[in-house]
Amino acid sequence: MWDYRTPGIPDELFERTEEVPITKEDVRALAISKLRLKEGYSAIDVGCGSGSITVELCLQTKGQIYAIDFDNNAVELTKKNLAKFGTAAQVILGKAQDVLPTLPQVDAVVVGGTWGDARQVIQLAVDRLKKGGRIVIDTILIETMYQALAAVGELGLKDIDITQVTIAKARKVTTGTMMLARNPVMMISATK
Ligand SMILES: C[S@@+](CC[C@H](N)C(=O)[O-])C[C@H]1O[C@@H](n2cnc3c(N)ncnc32)[C@H](O)[C@@H]1O
């Protein structure tokens, strides 16, 4: 039986609610691969939403994982999904700007939510990274991408990669199979 160690757990296996967003499986698989995780690594998931990335971080590393979200619905959903997959993380309700400075240094950070001030959130996230640690920033808005790009440039990160992912999924229609496009995600990854 598949034990979920391969990134990209199907979205439908997660508990979902209308109001909490999820990073879709194909984008999630890419984000996880760009973190270059190893067993025992610690990580922070900034803006954990449904917890799908938090769960994958736990399964990939078996290390200490922290998840932050300022939406209580997201925190509760993340806890449900962690339990569903038999995983454990420290899930913290609060603004990333307030919580990040209280956390220890980690090997990897995923930034999936930056409402308020993307530049500040990314700076605080990079502060939490050990030297050689990896960061992945997922953005949908061009404005957030612009701020993220400025931040990674100013912070002296290395191996900066910018990838735009545009996924289309097949759907059966009466006349055949049609590809339906999802919104593009711009992903920045880098090493401290
Ligand atoms: C696109 S969702 C992330 C989805 C998540 N990666 C998943 O796999 O389900 C972004 C999340 O970031 C949270 N968020 C946005 N800005 C935040 C901030 N400044 N501090 C804490 N959480 C934040 C939102 O509440 C939302 O749940």
Automatic annotation (TrEMBL):
<feature type="domain" description="Methyltransferase">
    <location>
        <begin position="38"/>
        <end position="141"/>
    </location>
</feature>
<keyword id="KW-0949">S-adenosyl-L-methionine</keyword>
<dbReference type="InterPro" id="IPR050714">
    <property type="entry name" value="Cobalamin_biosynth_MTase"/>
</dbReference>
<feature type="binding site">
    <location>
        <position position="96"/>
    </location>
    <ligand>
        <name>S-adenosyl-L-methionine</name>
    </ligand>
</feature>
<keyword id="KW-0169">Cobalamin biosynthesis</keyword>
<feature type="binding site">
    <location>
        <position position="23"/>
    </location>
    <ligand>
        <name>S-adenosyl-L-methionine</name>
    </ligand>
</feature>
<dbReference type="GO" id="GO:0043776">
    <property type="term" value="F:cobalt-precorrin-6B C5-methyltransferase activity"/>
</dbReference>
<dbReference type="GO" id="GO:0008276">
    <property type="term" value="F:protein methyltransferase activity"/>
</dbReference>
<dbReference type="InterPro" id="IPR023475">
    <property type="entry name" value="CbiT"/>
</dbReference>
<dbReference type="GO" id="GO:0032259">
    <property type="term" value="P:methylation"/>
</dbReference>
<protein>
    <recommendedName>
        <fullName>Probable cobalt-precorrin-6B C(15)-methyltransferase (decarboxylating)</fullName>
        <ecNumber>2.1.1.196</ecNumber>
    </recommendedName>
</protein>
<keyword id="KW-0489">Methyltransferase</keyword>
<dbReference type="InterPro" id="IPR029063">
    <property type="entry name" value="SAM-dependent_MTases_sf"/>
</dbReference>
<keyword id="KW-0808">Transferase</keyword>
<comment type="similarity">
    <text>Belongs to the methyltransferase superfamily. Archaeal-type CbiT family.</text>
</comment>
<dbReference type="InterPro" id="IPR014008">
    <property type="entry name" value="Cbl_synth_MTase_CbiT"/>
</dbReference>
<feature type="binding site">
    <location>
        <position position="69"/>
    </location>
    <ligand>
        <name>S-adenosyl-L-methionine</name>
    </ligand>
</feature>
<comment type="pathway">
    <text>Cofactor biosynthesis; adenosylcobalamin biosynthesis; cob(II)yrinate a,c-diamide from sirohydrochlorin (anaerobic route): step 8/10.</text>
</comment>
<dbReference type="GO" id="GO:0019251">
    <property type="term" value="P:anaerobic cobalamin biosynthetic process"/>
</dbReference>
<dbReference type="Pfam" id="PF13847">
    <property type="entry name" value="Methyltransf_31"/>
</dbReference>
<feature type="binding site">
    <location>
        <begin position="47"/>
        <end position="51"/>
    </location>
    <ligand>
        <name>S-adenosyl-L-methionine</name>
    </ligand>
</feature>
<dbReference type="InterPro" id="IPR025714">
    <property type="entry name" value="Methyltranfer_dom"/>
</dbReference>
